[in-house]
Amino acid sequence: MSRLPVKKTYKLYIGGEFPRSESGRTYEAEGANVARGSRKDLRDAVRAARGAFPKWSGMTAYNRGQVVYRIAEMLESRRAEFADLSSGAEEVDRSIDRLVWYAGWADKLAQVLGSSNPVAGPYFNFTVPEPTGVVGILAPEEPPLAGLVSRLAPAMIGGNTTVVAASETHPLAAVELAEVLATSDVPGGVVNLLTGHREELAPWLAGHMDVNALDLAGADGQVEELERLAAENVKRVVRGAADDQSPWEIASFLELKTVWHPIGV
Amino acid sequence: MSELERKRDRAPVPAAWEYAPAPEARDLVQLRERYGLFVGSEWLEPAENYTTIDPSSEEPLAEVGQATREEVDQAVGAAREAFDGGWSAISPAERAKYLFRIARILQERSREFAVLESLNGGKPIRESRDVDLPLSAAHFFYYAGWADKLEYAFPNRKPRPIGVAGQIVPWNFPLLMLSWKIAPALAAGNTVVLKPAETTPLSALLFADVLRQAELPPGVVNIVTGDGRTGAALVEHPDVDKIAFTGSTEVGKSIQRELAGTKKHLTLELGGKAANVIFDDAALDQAVEGIVNGIYFNQGHVCCAGSRLLVQESIYEPLVGKLKRRLATLRVGDPLDKNTDVGAINSRQQLDKITELVASGEEEGAEIYQPPCRLPEKGYWFVPTVFTNVAQSYRIAQEEIFGPVLSVLTFRTPDEAVEKANNTPYGLSAGVWTEKGSRILAMAQKLRAGVIWANTYNRFDPASPFGGYKESGFGREGGRHGLEPYLEFE
């Protein structure tokens, strides 16, 4: 007699936990019932992200790099599952390698992006990059896994915490990735993943007053409205590349701080 | 005796100090009766005019253009033509030499500019002479050197100019903000349409004469004067590739909204409500000077002004005592007098705003202190003011006043100082005063602001990037980082 497989319930990922949508709603995608996140879920996710920010941004860069590397390790061990949820093994390998590439950036950013500045006065003046804060990400619809990883990794590695609206048509890779994150030493709240209808989530993410930056990689046709909403608290708006890697993708989510330290005996 | 007068009388005031007047020669500046719009190196006769005044006397100084949409269009056309017609093709080394020339001419004519800046803006000549002008020239000199070294600033990125930059500058540092905008834009190879602030157009118009002397090709820099309507026309113009704005957060947000959905590049340098944090081990007399420089410099018309003083409780009494005594020695009056510390408020509108916010402070329960001070009868003036007993929720602790008004709050632990300092939607700057170097760096890490001054305040340098976190804007001006907003990359 053949065994009946145990099917997974696809849920949200907020503050390191896997709740259903508070709205009790789901929608069907890729043959599964997926949580249909609400405005309230989104606000909860922003709160979790804000709460996680001091710890994640305060970690040493070395440590943050190791955590992101750990995500790659966990992903590697689940290659087969992710191949089924994405365009295939090649996409999974690309995503893993991309995580490794970004992991290595953590403790180089200040050296590449910062400077010491020769001011005309008795000051040691230096500029260092710092994370912007809470970043809202509209993940690209495709590729399901590499698109999400390409947007998440640069925001994370710089020390930001994130609220991600997953691909609406291919959400399963995102939910699966949440399980990877939950077992990768990523502190709860650093990444919060919402599935659901883009049009129900995006405007609230764009207009939220406690979100500091907005990645519109997956915005389709709503860019103008979302950018207008983002202006309400002067968000940094990034139209990120859906499937690419670059240190400038990290820099988009960084602030530059300049310190004047006195010199004297 | 009113309540206010009683409080003033309680102040520990030094005996009146007499100074002989020390006026700077006003005739260094030859004003024209009317100024046109500077478009394609020609003076365009404007369709509409308005009168610009001296805020310290309310006397008219000159008629200037209120540039219309059509005139802005002409200026953008001239900038486009210059960009396509040669400026971006001139060798970077030659571009650098134009900028070096501008820096030198500004140095040569610095006193003339300083007098004009004080006349039209109300700021003390001591500041326009010693701060605005030297820094303006230094800014051009600094960016001149970058013009032919961009590939070294951005290795592997193939930098290229964006095109036509529309730049809108504020009235608090008219020429300096012009320099912060124009120098990096030209160094990167862009052309410019600049709009000075409505109340302070004259130094920008005199700068046109510097461009003539430097023989800058026509159309590379165009200057259109006018109010917010002129600025809006520039922001909305479809052939402008980049907008750089310095001014209020409110206007900055409206510009960001306006540009939503477009491909225009944008940088914003907006308001602030900076905390100036004084620890109990700070050198108090030095700190008092820093506090005064932090909030009364340029009448407090400074986006990065240290408008919230956070004092460690254990030194609250002696520090506030010293501060009040120091306040009584500030000389408020004629901006062209070399002894003046605090000049005129820039405009009637700004004076009304300061007055309204100060009234709200008293209403909400803060305790006001103003030193005895005789103000001139004409012009716009405000007595340097300190509020104590301020709660974080008061408007004077939340809103940018942009005037000579300080709100004093207290803290016990470094963590509390950080929490209070960061409790604002702004994030432009902050100050830290302590003799402990490790504490300076620890505080600098935790304060969410773009510029941190330790044991100093309101210090600027062309090599030092400047700009905000959060609602204080995005993008940096100054340093290598200040080039980036004027470049595109592959």
Description of the molecule:
The complex is a heterodimer of chains A (265) and B (490). With 265 residues, chain A is of the alpha/beta class. Chain A is 41% helix and 18% strand. Chain A is built from ten helices and ten strands. In chain A, helix 7 links the parallel strand 6 (161-165) and strand 7 (191-194). Chain A starts with 25 loop residues before the first strand and ends with a strand. In chain B, the strands form five sheets. Chain B has a seven-stranded mixed beta sheet, with helices on both faces. In chain B, strands 8-7-6-9-10-18 form a six-stranded mixed beta sheet, sandwiched between helices. Chain B has helices at residues 3-9, 69-87, 92-108, 110-121, 125-146, 150-153, 174-187, 202-214, 228-236, 249-258, 284-296, 316-327, 348-364, 395-398, 414-421, 437-446; strands spanning 37-39, 42-44, 49-54, 59-65, 160-161, 164-168, 191-195, 221-223, 242-246, 265-269, 275-278, 308-312, 367-369, 385-388, 405-411, 429-433, 451-454, 473-474, 487-488. Chain B has two domains: 26-270 and 469-488, Aldehyde Dehydrogenase, Chain A, domain 1 (3-Layer(aba) Sandwich), CATH 3.40.605; 272-454, Aldehyde Dehydrogenase, Chain A, domain 2, CATH 3.40.309. Chain B has 16 helices and 19 strands. Helices cover 39% and strands 16% of the residues of chain B. The mean pLDDT of chain B is 95. The longest helix of chain B is centred in the first third of the chain and has 22 residues, at 125-146. Chain B has 490 residues and is α/β, with parallel strands linked by helices. The chains are: A alpha/beta (265), B alpha/beta (490). The A-B interface holds A 115, 117-121, 123, 125, 127, 132-133, 212, 223-228, 230-234, 236, 248, 255-262 and B 138, 157, 249, 252-254, 256-257, 259-261, 268, 270, 425, 437, 440-441, 444, 449-456, 459, 461, 463-467, 469-474, 476, 479-481, 489. Strand 10 of chain A pairs parallel with strand 17 (451-454) of chain B.
